[in-house]
Each structure stands twice: as C-alpha cells, then as structure tokens.
Amino acid sequence: MKQDSKAKVDRRDLLRALGVSAGAAAVPGALVSEAQADSENNDEKRKARYQANSADVKAFYRVNNYPK
Fold it and tell me: Disulfide engineering: 40 pairs with which of 6, 28, 44, 48, CB 3.0-4.6 Å?
C-alpha cells in the first residue's frame, strides 16, 4: 500500500486543536475579573428572608392542598 503524501488531519487531532483553542480563549476572561467581597454585614446575613404572607408562599400551600 502506498502512503498518501498529503497531510491528513485526523479527527482526534482536530478535536485536540479545538480543545486547546477553547481553553486558551477562556483563560483571559477568568484572569480579568476580580473577586468581589461580600457586601452584607453580619446583621443583614442573619435576617429572616422567609416571608410567610408573600404571594408565592400562599400559592404554594394553596396548590399543595389540592386533593390527590
């Protein structure tokens, strides 16, 4: 059998090249963004966030009381 003299790109080589280029494109975006400190103080972190009389809580209990 004769070997083809033309360079042939295998599927594995193509996927490897795409993976490397995608990884290289994602790195600069991750390096540019800086970490931000949490803006809540301790009192705000500990406050109650559950509102028993809110519309979505009322709808949840209303819908879940339907007969099965």
Answer: 44
Q: What is the rounded CA–CA span in Å between residue 52 and residue 37?
A: 30
Measured CA to CA, the distance from residue 38 to residue 45 in angstroms comes to: 10
User: For residues 21 and 14, is the Cβ–Cβ distance under 8 A?
Assistant: no
Residues 1-22 have pLDDT tens digits of: 566 556 677 878 877 887 777 7
Q: Is the pTM of this model over 0.70?
A: no
With residue 28 as reference, give the H or E element that holds it. helix 11-32
Beta strands of the chain (E only): which ranges?
A: none
